[in-house]
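Appendix B. Extra example for self-study. Work through it before the problem class; the solution is given directly after the inputs so you can check yourself.
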Amino acid sequence: MDILYKIFIDPFMQMGAAPDLLVQALWEGLVGGVLYALIALGFVLIFKASGVFNFAQGIMMVFAALTLVGLYEWMARHGVPAPAAIALVLTIGVMYVLAVSIEKFVLRPLVNQPDIILFMATFGLTFVLVGLGELIFGGEPKQMITEQLWLPKGSIDMKILGGLVSLQKIDIAAAVIASAMVAGLAVFFQSTRIGRALRAVADDHQAALSVGISLNQIWVIVWFTAGIVALATGIMWGARSDVSFALEIIALKALPVLILGGFTSIPGAIVGGLIIGVGEKLGEFYWGPLLGGGIESWLAYFIALAFLLFRPQGLFGEKIIERI
Amino acid sequence: MKIRTLALATAAGVALATALPVAASAQDAIYVPLFTYRTGAFAGSGIPIANGMSDYLNMLNERDGGIGGVKLLIEECETGYDTKKGVECYEQVKGKNPVITSPYSTGITLQLIPKAAVDKIPMLSMAYGLSASADGNIFPWIFNPPATYWDGASVFIKHVADKEGGLDKLKGKKIGLIHLDAPFGKEPITLLEKLAKDYGFELKLYPVAAAEMQNQSALWLGVRRDRPDWIYLQGWGAMNPTAVKEAAKVNFPMEKLVGVWWAGGDDDARAGADQAKGYKSLSFHAAGAEFPVIKDIQKFVVEKGKSQVDKAKVGENLYNRGVYNSMLIAEAIRNAQKITGKKAVTGEDVRRGMESLEISEARLKELGMEGFAAPVKISCSDHNGHHKVYVASWDGQKWTKGSDWMEPMKDKVRPLLEEAAKDYADKNAGWPKRTEACDKAS
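Solution. Structure tokens for the complete assembly:
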């Protein structure tokens, strides 16, 4: 009986007794969720356009953040004016060059190959980017240049609900930027000519080619867009800790989000991210102590799998109907 | 036919060329492999240590021509802090007659402990690894000076008691342990549970999975709810700067957050900017570049471009940790030469050298390490020494000495440790009884 009480009653009693902590946990979950959604978005973009699960998305995030900070440090050392702004522009340029290179040297030779071949190619790409990143920037952690990028610092502390709710300004900025990016990408996919072409490529490479859509151009655009998303994600996660290769691990958090939201849906990535973010924070905070803590790493997968029992295609994934 | 002959000749040539340095190493040099991690998720902590380790040994080669006139053959093997890769490194180096191994990972150490006695290669797990391996009667090939994780945890509790007004004031206090959810992170739990029982404080555990190192907000929300009076941080890699940042975020008093010695990297504290001021970490050596030994490293290695270190980072806390690690290796080799009268010592000789090692204040001065570390003495039965540790404090720019040298609670640690060592031997059927003779102290 005691265990049932601890599982089904006590957590809700705690929520009622300290509503400020509940609000804080919800906020942390929402911020985490938005950031997960941003990572998942990078995966979704590429999956939509090429049907490939891009294993390299995590390292792209690290590479983008390292490039930004590395360029900034170099320019600051050499007295270049406005180093942060220039570093940001140059990093975007680097992500574009990366997208073109990936299209030319990885994807183009593999057109019409089975998806698993492309998937394995992204494994190779991961190791290339890890090596390149370590060669250029070294393995030592770097500090994210949040202030230089005009991102706010400090917190907004509110004495409400009989306690304190603290909102970090950087988290608010992360939520705003992520929301704006998600909205922009949704409009881009749904309402622009390139967006429609991109969806056509995702449906069928050969059919898209037959109506005059340039596969190469679309792939460059989509990998470049995923690179920009990786940069934004790297800045936000880097600000929470530091910029190092450990950030790559965080990208794996996008997997349960994708399982939940579906691999092809932008709204799915967002809703999935929020559900996973809030679910794991509440789970860890209220139910974690029952299991000795540290349940976040598997709870996200548990939540995703529980949803899959009812919707195998994910919340917003396309239902696959095969007629025999 | 000609092509086949050519191919065979080439293959034989390559095989010979590969084998030659190994053969040469056995005769003309002392082979010291260094297991390092300059890549991967834990590189932030691994790089400064790797630099310190290799720079000290290189300095001995450059300045003194090695040890006792014999050059050191130094070779790094990249483990990425991955146990599997670490074991691969061991298999790779063991055929080259290493005189000692230094895995630099508790996970790798645990895997290699049973191999050390079989392969006759002593292992130094300096202030990490299995605490129980300090019992030389059961682990004659393993050495973990100058202090075990249990010593560290006991010094932390003594520090808390000092600040709270005595050990009796610990009753009713709440002490949190934030730890990496891995063998390294879990090591101090046994001792802290015992001390919690003895002194009446409540121990709260906060495990951090490796995948969540940079995602600790829920954990720190738990800290806010539980309101521990003090927190001990048994963290590594990216876990540490994240913890320092999160502590600042939830306004946890920084002077009550104390890291184990591995949570004392300059980058760990620097990440918290001004808010990290007052953060503490245990240490068993000094930080800073003002010591003669560090100046020699700068002169003979760094200035000559023979190091991978960023010049500005020479003397940082984890860099000096690497220097200290290599100093222990070098002194064990020197002692082995003295005991055996041989120049090119073997693994078995260095085991004896390590087991009878005594580094006095006078010897530290000779080494250019006066004030750098406390004297070290290892014996046949005690492979650790349970030496003094101090609490370092981050002043916003650098680590400073925040307390006097403090003795660990040896009376609490040693019986528990001997029990754990016996338990280890019992659980590992066929664990060999010690047959190695003891030498007198150096």
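Self-check: The mean pLDDT of chain A is 89. If your reasoning did not lead you there, revisit section 3.
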